[in-house]
Amino acid sequence: MGLPKITFLIATAGLGLLTADIQKVPGLVITGNTVAEKIAIGESKQIFSLEQAQEFGITQTENPFAFKHVKAFYDYAGTNAELWIMLTSDATKVSAMADKNGTIAKKLLNDAGGRIRVLGLIKEFEDDDNSANGLDADLDVAAVNLQALGEEFTTKYFPFRGVVSGNNFSGNVQNLKDYATTEHNRVSVLLANTDGAKEASIGLALGRLASTPVQRKLHRVKDGAVENFNAYFTNGEKVESLSASWDALADKNYIFMRNFVGRAGFYFSSDPTLTKETDDFKTLSNGFVMDKAMILAYNVLVENLADEVPVAEDGNIHPAIIKSWQSAVESNINGNMTNQGEISACKCFIDENQNVLQTGAMTVELQVLPVGYSEYITVKIGFTAQINA
Which of 231, 235, 282, 233 minimizes the C-alpha distance to 260? Predict the structure, then answer.
């Protein structure tokens, strides 16, 4: 006991502080070259500006392809935006980048410690790259691999969504695979760019995503145009050349660029993932919202893992514990999401009729009510002889 004294036991959780906000931190795996003493192929780098990227050898002369996309990212997102990047050889296919048994995207995600929420994958086009279904032949395998990688990292509480470049579009919409028939709800494909290249503007797309909250649509008009002058498909043709097929492209779940009559500039078309119409996560925005809610709930509940759980006389969870856990989860999500306009509401429910004495297990139900979107606006207009009240 020692000498008589007064001891203060200072509580550390009395204020009910929120856990850290979860942002859409991007990662980029892209074709590049090793630059001695600066960056090596397969090495993960965390950067916060174009100048820092240049210090790592991602310059117009040493790594022109990667430089173009990193510059596009920072031109949109601005200095201080966080970006994780890894260079791969020009022989590395996107399917290999995304392989969950490989050491490319998987290494970048691990090195980032779960910070990456959206991952861009892009290979520089080469003339001998094979084509199928109107695009690079590797795309379909890449989508399958990236979905599997995303599912694996979700089980680690490192959820992310992926955007892949749809290289070398043939220009024939009919030949494109219909990704509304697949189930890759963590993957999107971009078919457009701002310079007529064979690759999509992945850096620009990541910049837009990183600059907006989780619920925000990639194509929200109020956020302004992403390109002021020209937009192309990855066959080098201007997007206006296929304006009659834009609906067909959208129905097959591809992202491209479009314009609006009477409004300058070009906008992303939508934010679909490669999945069915009935999938809750048929859009990137819904996916980002759920990923954030999951991590926020995890950050609260992990504190209670393996903790003692008082029980009532019937052996079930004590009501006071239920109220405490429910309140903590709801407070964290409401503070970080509902109050920010990212979701409409959330509700945490724990059934008190769970016999933790026998099972050692507890089930927590979390309901998240998303925001709605004005995706389709129908206007009924006509002359009238009288204005009705």
Answer: 231
Q: Tell me which amino acid residue 32 is.
A: G
pTM of the model: 0.88
Per the CB < 8 A criterion, the answer to whether 123 and 167 are in contact is yes
The rounded Cα 199 to chain-centroid distance in angstroms is: 20
| Rounded Cα distance, 284 and 287, in Å | 5
Task: Give the C-alpha separation, 234 to 171, whole Å.
Answer: 8
| pLDDT tens per residue across span 314-345 | 767 777 777 888 888 899 999 999 999 999 99
Mean pLDDT of 109-121: 96
Per-residue tokens: 233: 């498909």
264 CB-contact burial (10 Å; exposed 0-12 / middle 13-18 / buried 19+): exposed
Q: Are 126 and 152 in contact (CB under 8 A)?
A: no
Backbone angles phi, psi at 50, to 5 degrees: -65, -35
Do the Cβ atoms of 285 and 293 come closer than 8 Å? no
Reading the block at residue 307, the tokens are: 């903790």
Label residue 147 by pLDDT band (50, 70, 90): very high
Helices 64-77 and 202-210: crossing angle in degrees, nearest 10, is: 30
Packed helices 284-301 and 319-336: angle between N→C axes, nearest 10 degrees: 140
Asked if residue 364 lies in contact with residue 329, where contact means CB atoms within 8 angstroms, the answer is yes
Helix/strand/coil percent split, the chain, to 5: 30, 20, 45
- The answer to whether 131 and 119 are in contact (CB under 8 A) is no
The helices-and-strands tally (H runs, E runs) of the chain is 10, 16
Alpha helices in 89-179 (DSSP H): 94-98, 105-111, 139-155
Residues with Cβ within 8 Å of residue 311, at least 6 apart in sequence: 317, 318, 356, 357
Six-digit token pair at 309? 């759980």
